[in-house]
Amino acid sequence: MRKITALTIAFIMIFTSFSFALDFNATAKYLEKQKLDEWGILALYSYGKDVKNKTLKKVDASNITTDYEAYIMGAVPKGEDVSSYAKKIIKAQRESGKFADYIDGTGEDLINAHIWGIISLYTANKEGYDKKKALEWLKENQNEDGGFSVFTGMNYSDVDLTAMGLIAYSILGLDKEHEKVKKAINFIEKNIDKKQTCEGVAYYILARTKLGMDIDKNLYNKLLKYQLKDGSFKHLKRASKGNYMATWHGMLAMMDYKNKSSVFTRLHDMNKVKNEKKKVAKK
After folding, report:
1. Considering the domain 35-278 in this protein, what is its CATH number?
2. What is the pLDDT of residues 136-173, one digit of tens each?
3. Could you tell me how far CA 11 lies from the centroid of its own chain?
4. For the whole model, what pTM was predicted?
């Protein structure tokens, strides 16, 4: 009986590991067949692919701050020097502390422009901005229900954006015990099943990982319900086909879950080491 039990446990462990491999590998293969942007590049990097030769469209002609922030998220995994882009984002921080909607420093409506300014600069290890003001602005624009809205002044909170806000909070030094963080987590827990999108679940996994929190197996399984046999992820459960956007979200979340570390932290640490080596080389 003991031998049978031991063999059963061993079989389950092997099968589970194989299933995980299928989850990751099929999704990576799906993404590699797509026309990649910065997010697909980031997702493949998190999987462990060498993305140095992947093509990334320049955004120098754009006046939209999130274009520069997104570019950094794809360029850093490629090993590119993003100093000039980071400087532009830092320069776009307004007196209020917010990263402006537009790279010329104008616009104070888009909350995601502020959040991704924080995340992208952290990822690139280019953090020479006023963090205190950035944090205060973020706190002031958190809704009473604990969530964040797409636009300032809106009372309708969004699950995806709230999870992104948690990542920014973690970067700016707030931990899982901080009241603002607890309120945001509470909002997500109450609303994640109401919205039911792959992206919402994925961002929540990314946020919990960045905060150093455990990822409940039920939450991970909730993500896998959006995955199709070809490795792609669908935006909504009722959808019959997968799509690129949902899939790169799914890949990022799966890999954070597998690695038990945030892709943003891994890139930050990598760039920190690179910058320190450059400083030593100059001496």
Report:
1. 1.50.10.20
2. 999 999 999 999 999 999 999 999 999 999 999 999 99
3. 34
4. 0.91
